[in-house]
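Re: the multi-chain job from yesterday

Posting the exact lines I submitted so nobody has to dig through the queue logs.
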Amino acid sequence: MKIALVVGTVVASQKEPNLEGSRLLILKNVTIDAQVQSEYVVAVDAVGAGAGEYVLYAGGSSARQTEATHNRPVDAVVMAIVDSWEVGGVEKYKK
Amino acid sequence: MKIALVVGTVVASQKEPNLEGSRLLILKNVTIDAQVQSEYVVAVDAVGAGAGEYVLYAGGSSARQTEATHNRPVDAVVMAIVDSWEVGGVEKYKK
Amino acid sequence: MKIALVVGTVVASQKEPNLEGSRLLILKNVTIDAQVQSEYVVAVDAVGAGAGEYVLYAGGSSARQTEATHNRPVDAVVMAIVDSWEVGGVEKYKK
Amino acid sequence: MKIALVVGTVVASQKEPNLEGSRLLILKNVTIDAQVQSEYVVAVDAVGAGAGEYVLYAGGSSARQTEATHNRPVDAVVMAIVDSWEVGGVEKYKK
Amino acid sequence: MKIALVVGTVVASQKEPNLEGSRLLILKNVTIDAQVQSEYVVAVDAVGAGAGEYVLYAGGSSARQTEATHNRPVDAVVMAIVDSWEVGGVEKYKK
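And the result, structure tokens for all chains:
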């Protein structure tokens, strides 16, 4: 998984029928020092995440292992909202 | 998923039999500021997308989770046509 | 999928038994302007492709969705021979 | 798989229910000369690894092939703690 | 698949139980001109490969399609030992 920041949303009305109701979030990867990077990914929200929150997302087939994404054509899912993380005992982020 | 622009098509008459009838689109990745990048991917169309449209595509095994791609040897599928997206509350693209 | 040029072959006599008879092609990725790149991949041939032909290959688990590759430890398959492709209405390659 | 160093942990209380109890480790990739790189990944611990240990992690669907990760939305798992490795007969690391 | 050179081994006594007995090889990618690159991967050996041999490895879920790796948390497998390869009719390597 990667840590990312929720920065936006995508609206798409014409889509695979089983994606109806999925929230599509735009995430930007962050470094472990909490610096936001330019690289982004669009992921389906499985945990009620919102703009400005740090989250974990999983990619590939693992992205379909949530109720929100089961058997759907999505390759990235937000499966956790991050409270905090530490590196070498030093807190790098706390919500 | 990634946001991409449909820029072209591929014709391939000699192919796996179960790919008969699949539309093969050439997509170029775009940044979240809607700038078109040089990187491309060829994806099967599952939603009736056409040239000049912004779309979402999914890769890997998730690309086979549509009616158009089930059990077929394809690793990228267009599964949504994008209406709009916003970053930090600012609309970056609207159809 | 990616468009690639068939440039060579690999011979491997000591291998997983279920790979017996598989043709192993060396592919070089091409840009959408048909320029050959240095990056390569070794893929199993599922469609009778030969040196000098432009092909489409699929990677990951999708590479096992052909008769030639089913249940085999291969992560790339040539699943189509390209006749032509166009970008923005301009033909970039025709066989 | 890749060799990585365990450098930190992530806390996430709001997450997919089946992730309850999973330990989320921050790993930094290392070169085969045991130099720590900036690239990181967040992986679920399946073997009781701790900070400062060199580990192997697996990605993609293979990350779900442990008791700790079965059917869960995780795309990276620590599946071994490294005792030592050698390159060309020269020991590069020993615990 | 990629062509790689077997350059070393990893020892890991504390690991997922079903990895008991797996040989963990360190591979370095090679170019199609047989030049060894710095990038490495750790793969399970399924064909009896040894140091100094050129091999093919498969990644992702395809890495689990051998007897040695079935249902195990490994994302790379050596599934063939290379005898030779040619590019444009020119032999680049012969064992």
